[in-house]
Amino acid sequence: MKYYIKTFGCQMNFNDSERIKGMLQTLGYQEAKDWQEADIILINTCTIREKPDQKVFSHLGEYKKLKEQNPKALIGVCGCLAQRMGFELIQKSPVVDIMFSSFNMHQLPELIQQAQAGYKAVAILENPPDDEDKLWDYPTVRDNPYCAYVTVMKGCDKNCTYCVVPKTRGRQRSRSLESILKEVRDLVSDGVKEVHLLGQNVTAWGKDIGKHFSELLYRVAEIDGVERIRFTTGHPKDLDEGIAKAMGEIKKVCEHIHLPFQAGSDRILKLMDRGYTKEEYLEKISMLKEYVKGITFSTDVIVGFPTETEEDFEETLDMLKKVRFEQVFSFKFSPRPDTPAYSMEGQVPDQVKTQRMSRLLQLQKEIMGEVAKSYEGTIQEVLIESIEHGNKLIGRTRTNRWVSMEGGVEMLGKVVKVKVIRSYPFNMECELV
Ligand code: 5AD
Ligand code: SF4
User: What are the residue boundaries of the structural domains of the chain, listed by start?
Assistant: First the structure.
């Protein structure tokens, strides 16, 4: 029996899919190369913006054909869209046999049995169940042998007015320190060098269990064999001095942080309920620079939030100029059902969003060109993650930039020093030192 999983959305979703793969393999399934040869297809969905929603339905239309060749084949939908739409999804797409929410992935084995017996297997929960931690007991199928995602918390306690995540993933639940450390130790014994701690708001880890995120960083760093630590996503409000200090003190923590600012205007930040001003965000950036020498930044921005004026938007551009992010992920505001921003007055016309977006991209392109140039001639530490065409090594710097260089398979999984020969916005050609 073979499975095929199509994953949309964030790294958390990709890690969930790695866990689902682990469960399926425990049940005796193997991964199919493409969906045509699968006995079960799962779509792990995202609903953060309207676009990923639409993609799910177009994929379902395609996957429907599987049942013509293989009438016993099962089609499942899980993740955030499943959670948000519930039964409405199966009504819209009767081809779906299995549906579960992000709260109860661990129930997949039972759901498959039900579906095989000919029932629609739907398990959408309103709240996370008490036994959701059972998920951690399953082995995980890793997509990358050297860098591993480790989910350390689920859900989010913030109330950003544009965001569906508190609805689809629930309130914050931190995973216990013991459970995380055990997973990291197991990963290291499997050859993993870099751990990437994941959470919707990872900097708030521990707040619900009387702990602080910096403790997690120190404890993970104590594990022999962990060479690098990264984490995503940080929230500026929870990023305090304790975290900045830990990042600076712990050599294993990479000098990079993804810290979404979303908007540069204080008025818009307030409407978004982000809990900080532009000035406060910039103070966090200065604090990080002070504690973590050479730190680089990436961010998320929303363009065209309700009532955003030209002046508000210029504050966003100003933020890009001031911080000079290495990477900016920018999104046109997409009204999500059941969020406060959905029904706010003053929705910005799509045409205006598109124009602002293209100005933002143009500015960031210039900044990235300059940032890239500043790397040329420098020495960087790189973890070699993969190889292409037998001799092109691919890796990442501590500051989260992709590099490539010549070399052989024996270099895979090694942390090496390289010299940057030529640097482009998204890649750097290097030489081993
Ligand atoms: N519209 C546009 N972008 C959004 N994001 C979250 N919700 C929305 C929305 N409704 C963006 C934010 C977040 C990233 C993952 O997606 O920038 O940080
Ligand atoms: Fe998409 Fe957010 Fe769900 Fe991740 S948590 S899959 S970004 S909706």
Answer: 2-123, 132-374, 379-432
Are domains 2-123 and 379-432 of this chain identical in fold?
no
Name the residue at shortest CA distance from atom 14 of ligand 1.
Answer: 300
> Is there a binding annotation on residue 160?
yes
Q: Inter-axis angle of helices 241-249 and 278-291, to 10 degrees?
A: 30
C-beta 163 within 6 A of ligand 1: yes
The pLDDT assigned to 104 comes to 87
CATH superfamily of the 379-432 domain: Nucleic acid-binding proteins (2.40.50.140)
Say which CATH superfamily domain 2-123 falls into.
Methylthiotransferase, N-terminal domain (3.40.50.12160)
Number of residues written out for the chain: 433
Q: Is 430 annotated as ligand-binding? A: no
CA of 166 to the centre of ligand 2 (A): 10
For 8-145, strand residue ranges (E) read 30-31, 40-45, 74-79, 98-100, 121-123
Q: Is 155 in the pocket of ligand 2 (CB under 6 A)?
A: no
Q: Which residue has the tokens 């890796």?
A: 395
Q: Is the pLDDT of residue 139 over 90?
A: no
User: 43 CB under 6 A from ligand 2?
Assistant: no
Q: Beta strand pairing status for 402-406 and 392-397?
A: antiparallel
pLDDT at 427: 93
Pick the CATH number of 132-374 from 3.40.1400.10, 3.40.50.150, 3.80.30.20, 3.50.50.60: 3.80.30.20
Global model pTM greater than 0.70 = yes
